[in-house]
């Protein structure tokens, strides 16, 4: 075999045998393609009609009042477009849209002043065979009409497909005589700006866009694409965009189905323009809560914004059960603030009585927000950099930090239980070397988890002067230690919690009131849970238990007379 000296790109005739696979053959595909062709032909209206033929075949007919098709052969020439040079430059029509009809029997009629009316019928099998199609004279006197034998799969959904195709289409569309609803693709946008033949609409919502959202509109053909979006911090605002393509030749759709955008320089530039539009929309607001990084990006894109509004979420302790989250306690604004870092739930719950005391701290405890680091107001706030605890037992001082208890001691009552919070004046470079303050505050209880929030292994220290009762201590133990398992073999959350609270109540009573009180409390709980419901109404039960001897007496409750 002799090698050729040159080669060139070309389309094999065999491609025709695969044209039924260029499109997925849905009603949405067909309607979108045919409506685009009608628009390019200068139509001012499109009518869609469903017909029932004498032989039972259902037919979908589309009729437009455009300038018609002068050369019937263009319709069936794969890759050849009959549009003028100006339209080809602006929209890059590929000469493939009519092949969305491949595999179906189709009748086409069209009229131009130069050719008059003509008609062709393409049998279902002719699309891939390349067989000759007769061109006949037709009585049609304007526009183009296409009649398609409808597959059964279209029957129930054709009306809905027409509604979808018409919703953002620039021309009126009627279905079986009734005009379909139309809507501006950028309706409800809070800000719209023009860019390189596009309209960019900015929307303000509460959630991030889904990757399947159709955020680009090409004259009624909507395309899924993940577009730039910016979320504010702690304000439940997410800024998203939609793009309405008007005349942007650089933005190309992937052929043949045009369901996604070609990744090119124009698309990359559009993404930048969208981010700039978002920041311009935010600049029109009274205030914002952008992260420092987003604020800097806006500046780099030429949009000048003030710093984020200087408020933070008021701090409250988190719970060991992550499902409970961190309970909200409002926001702190226009008042002295002290940043408290995230710690484990047992540390936060134990320290909370002291950290929420604004009168003693001289400031309101607030949650840290790392995304704000870099803003002048945020970096200037004082902050807690370390939390540890101390107490005395038998004259020995004991320190408790994040990881250890030194020296090792057992659960029980102690003296002079204290929180020690180390506070620095700010996070600004010029604050280095300034006085560090250690804040001391008395505490009633300290709970430290030592083994995956297990109540059996936790260390619990109670100041001898504490006024906490068993219920209060049990609730604290729940907040510090209850971390239910998600394992499908475990009991439900409710069952796990009930069991934990039972154990916590017994332990709390034992620590505060002694073993006898705890036993009595446990027995009462067991009787209430398992026995009380067995006693008939109007009767009372007395039980005496000695070893294995159990005596039960049930008597009627004497009736009292008024």
Can you tell me about this structure?
It is a single chain. With 562 residues, this protein is of the alpha+beta class. Helix content is 24%, strand content 27%. β9 (191-195) and β10 form a beta hairpin. α11 crosses α12 and α12 runs antiparallel to α13 (515-530). The protein is elongated. The mean pLDDT is 87.
Structure keywords:
562 residues; alpha+beta; eight-stranded mixed sheet; 13 helices
Write a short abstract of this structure.
By secondary structure, the chain is of the alpha+beta class.
Helix content: 10-25%
User: How are the strands of the biggest sheet laid out side by side?
Assistant: 5-4-3-6-2-1-7-8
Poorly predicted regions are none
Q: How far is the N terminus from the C terminus? A: 122 Å
Biggest sheet, in brief?
A: 8 strands, mixed
Topology:
Blueprint: H1 27-40, E1 46-52, E2 58-64, H2 72-75, H3 85-91, E3 106-112, E4 116-122, H4 126-129, E5 136-137, E6 144-149, H5 158-167, E7 173-175, E8 178-179, E9 191-195, E10 198-205, E11 214-218, E12 221-224, E13 230-231, E14 238-245, H6 265-283, H7 292-300, E15 311-313, E16 331-333, E17 337-340, H8 345-355, H9 358-361, E18 364-367, H10 376-379, E19 383-393, E20 396-400, E21 405-406, E22 412-424, E23 437-442, E24 445-448, E25 459-463, H11 470-481, H12 493-513, H13 515-530, E26 539-546, E27 549-556
Parallel strand pairs: 1-7, 11-14, 17-18, 22-25
Antiparallel strand pairs: 1-2, 2-6, 3-4, 3-6, 4-5, 7-8, 9-10, 10-14, 11-12, 13-14, 15-16, 19-20, 19-22, 20-21, 22-23, 24-25, 26-27
């Amino acid at each position: 075999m002799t090698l050729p000296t040159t080669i060139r790109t070309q389309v094999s005739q065999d491609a025709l045998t695969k044209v039924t696979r260029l499109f997925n053959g849905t009603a949405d595909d067909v309607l979108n393609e045919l409506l685009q062709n009608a628009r390019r032909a200068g139509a001012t209206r499109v009518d869609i009609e469903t017909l029932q033929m004498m032989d039972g075949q259902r037919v979908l007919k589309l009729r437009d009042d455009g300038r018609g098709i002068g050369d019937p052969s263009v319709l069936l020439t794969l890759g050849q477009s009959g549009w003028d040079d100006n339209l080809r430059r602006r929209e890059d029509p590929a000469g493939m849209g009519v092949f969305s009809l491949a595999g179906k029997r189709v009748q086409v009629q069209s009229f131009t002043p130069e050719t008059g009316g003509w008609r062709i019928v393409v049998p279902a099998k002719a699309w891939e065979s390349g067989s000759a199609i007769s061109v006949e004279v037709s009585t049609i006197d304007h526009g183009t009409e296409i009649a398609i034998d409808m597959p059964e799969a279209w029957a129930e959904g054709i009306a809905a497909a027409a509604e979808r195709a018409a919703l953002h289409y620039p021309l009126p569309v009627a279905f079986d005589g009734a005009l379909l609803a139309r809507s501006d693709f950028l309706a409800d946008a809070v800000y719209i700006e023009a860019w390189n033949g596009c309209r960019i609409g900015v929307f303000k919502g509460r959630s991030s866009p889904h990757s399947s959202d159709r955020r680009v509109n090409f004259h009624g053909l909507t395309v899924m694409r993940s577009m730039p979006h910016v979320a504010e911090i702690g304000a439940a605002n997410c800024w998203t965009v939609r793009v309405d393509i008007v005349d942007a030749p650089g933005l190309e759709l992937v052929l043949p189905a045009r369901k996604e955008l070609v990744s090119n320089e124009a698309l990359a530039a559009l993404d930048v323009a969208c981010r700039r539009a978002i920041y311009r929309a935010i600049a029109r607001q009274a205030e914002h809560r952008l992260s420092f990084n987003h604020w800097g990006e806006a500046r780099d894109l030429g949009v000048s914004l003030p710093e984020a509004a200087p408020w933070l979420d008021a701090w409250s302790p988190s719970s060991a059960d992550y499902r409970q989250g961190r309970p909200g306690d409002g926001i702190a604004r226009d008042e002295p603030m002290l940043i408290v870092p995230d710690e484990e739930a047992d540390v936060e719950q134990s320290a909370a009585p002291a950290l929420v005391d604004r009168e003693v701290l001289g400031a309101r405890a607030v949650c840290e927000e790392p995304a704000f680091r870099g803003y002048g107001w945020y970096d200037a706030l004082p902050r807690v950099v370390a939390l540890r605890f101390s107490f005395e037992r038998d004259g020995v001082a004991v320190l408790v930090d994040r990881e250890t208890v030194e020296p090792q001691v057992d659960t029980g009552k102690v003296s002079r239980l204290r929180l020690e919070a180390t506070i620095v004046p700010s996070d600004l470079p010029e604050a280095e070397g300034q006085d560090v303050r250690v804040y001391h505050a008395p505490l009633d209880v300290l709970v430290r988890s030592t083994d995956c929030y297990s109540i059996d292994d936790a260390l619990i220290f109670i100041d001898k002067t504490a006024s906490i009762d068993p219920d209060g201590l049990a609730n604290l133990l729940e907040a510090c230690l209850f971390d239910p398992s998600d394992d499908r073999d475990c009991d439900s959350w409710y069952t796990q919690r009930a069991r934990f609270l039972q154990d916590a109540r017994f332990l709390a009573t034992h620590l505060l009131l002694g073993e006898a009180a705890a036993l009595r409390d446990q027995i009462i709980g067991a009787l209430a849970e398992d026995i009380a419901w067995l006693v008939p109404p109007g009767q009372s039960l007395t039980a005496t238990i000695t070893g294995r001897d159990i005596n039960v007496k049930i008597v009627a409750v004497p009736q009292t007379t008024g």
